Fold each of these.
Amino acid sequence: MTARFFRLLVCQLLLVFACASAQAAEGIEITRAGIEASDDGYRLAANYAFELPPGLEQAVMHGIPLHFTTEIELTRPRWWWTDDKAVSKRRTVRLHYDLLTRQYTVQVISGPQQSGGLQQSYQTLDEALLSIRRPSRWLIASKGELKPGEVYNVTLRMFMDRDYLQKPLQVDAFNNADLRLASHKKTFTYRAE
């Protein structure tokens, strides 16, 4: 019980340090965003630019996982009613450092408190972050979900997901605006093929 309390106290101190240094962080920038038609459907091709503040790097080095969630929504404008929501998807990626193997893992997970999906190991934090900044093409809709020739408004954003933090850390993150590593919403249009 004492070791667990000490670890929790160290984690909270690391997050306080992260809050102090997060002021220098610019947030997440979406540098590329587009939708590509493929044989199996429509895929998101996106790149992101961001740096982890030193406090968050230290938190990762002490075994605290960070989660990055990407949200995308495609709506079809209608003049006679509210916009038709065609696609609304979320994808979360977990960044974790294993203290025993001294490797970083990046894993696509399906939802809160669930694991599964693709997992890749990396030797350095830079390599792991590169895989998050430049993810593989994500299937966001099957062929039948979008109507060919129709124009869709696309809204995309990425953020560090605080819902996955341990409960005591969620309180610290919720109360401190400097810890919110997130992008602005990027909007563009896409004509379905």
Note: Residues 2-191 form one domain.
Amino acid sequence: MNRFLYFAGFAYVALCGAVLARKLGVGHSGRAVTVDPVVAVAPPPVPATGGEQWFAAMKPFCNQVEVDVRTRFTPPPATSEGSGFSAACFALAGKIDRARTIIEAMPARDRGAAANVLFNVAHPVADAGDDRASGPMMELVLDYWPNNYMALYHAGMSEYSLGQTALAETHLRAFLGMYNAADGFTGAARAALQKIEEGNGTLLRVRKPAEQEPASKP
């Protein structure tokens, strides 16, 4: 009798083990559970109800490392405003040629609007004092909006800080021809032009003695 109970108990335990193993190895649908391989996950899409909303969500990623991937998975709205903000995002990332390509792909009638979007993005950067970073963006604005006097100013000051005195002089003189308010912008532009003129004068004084030397006798 005891032997019979022993075998009955052993059979019950084995049956429970088999049922448990089947539950663990089979999903609710009756198919065997498998582990999917690890795959790259795309960035979550950015809601894009308009160009400005798209840019607000994308701005943290407008840098050289992330801008290409993010805009590939979350493209801007297919509008002139969307293209303008897309160009601005690439310009903020320092990819000026890519920004220009985006604007050039637009109909000619829409490029001025894109330049306006780009200017509105670059202007706060310039007003914060970072003329070097904003300068290339302002130069791109001038390609499509040449009479934007603030773009002329910021481009000129950027060029002046980089030692590009010929371009700086051209842009700053054009700025002063359009804007004559007695404020910090005109003061800074005139001070930069004065420094450029002094530098040009110094170069002339260095050359003058050599030019006045008598011709050597044969």
Note: Residues 47-129 form one domain.
